[in-house]
Predict the structure.
Amino acid sequence: MTSSTLLAQLRAVLQLTNTEIQVAEARIAQARTEAVRKELTQNAANGRERAETLEQTLRDLGGFPDVVGPLVGRTLAMFKVLVEQAQPFDEALLGDLALEQQLLGRSKYVKALATAANELTVVTLADRLIKAHSATVEWLETVLAEEALGGPVALRRTPLQAAAGSAVKLVNAPATWSARGLDRAVDAARTTPNRLNELLGRGAHVGDVAARTLSASRDAALEAAEEVTREDGADTAADAIHAVRAAGGILDASELPVDDYDTLNVSESVAAIKELTDPSDVRTIMAFEEAHKNRHGVVSATQTRLAAIAKDVIAVD
């Protein structure tokens, strides 16, 4: 009984591992920084190594090679990723976490079964699996905490996930904006002059003119809308518009939480980021950096700082 149960659990772990590999590979495209991309690439490679070891262990125990398992794992992962495109980003992360928690739980069960059967090689394998999945669970919990604090930083939302998340927020948003404040904000966005004449005067190319004009018009309209709504006393609306500007990296340098940030070099920027304690301030700097200089070392520093804050929130060492 113990032997057949152990074989069944090893096959289940193998199938879930194949799903895990495909999910990790899908997440690589969502990595915000090169460091995260390398980490996810290494995770996928480690998953393939674990899958190979699981297959060999099954053979050594007299089990038959699982030909269908990898196909099933890839199919499940493909279905999972497709379904996630219609979900908010946090739901996709929770799905990843559920997969890793199941792998962790089954790995612990495999260790208990192997211990009872005196299969020391399998016990050693189970210890490796437990360590790997524990680390991934911790990482995903941290990314979820970053999301709760207004992130995420480690991973980017896909466009569809961003749209789904926005739709959820819109449905759940309280109706606190004054009608007059909204009317004035819309009017400001419509009537704010763009910088077309300035760009044309500089002799820019037509395509560049179009792109820069659109960007300038949007940025100026949002800034004017925030100013108008705040003057009208619609602070909730103004705060929401400010949050949009901060998330898009289109705040003025004078509005940033770090004084004279636009004059700092990489080392000075990283040092300033390490001193930030409010996650919204870290996100603001990250968005501004990505929209302007986009220095990889600085972007990585914002990711590291927000991850540290998130770990403190969820009490992860």
Observations:
- The first helix runs from residue 2 to 28.
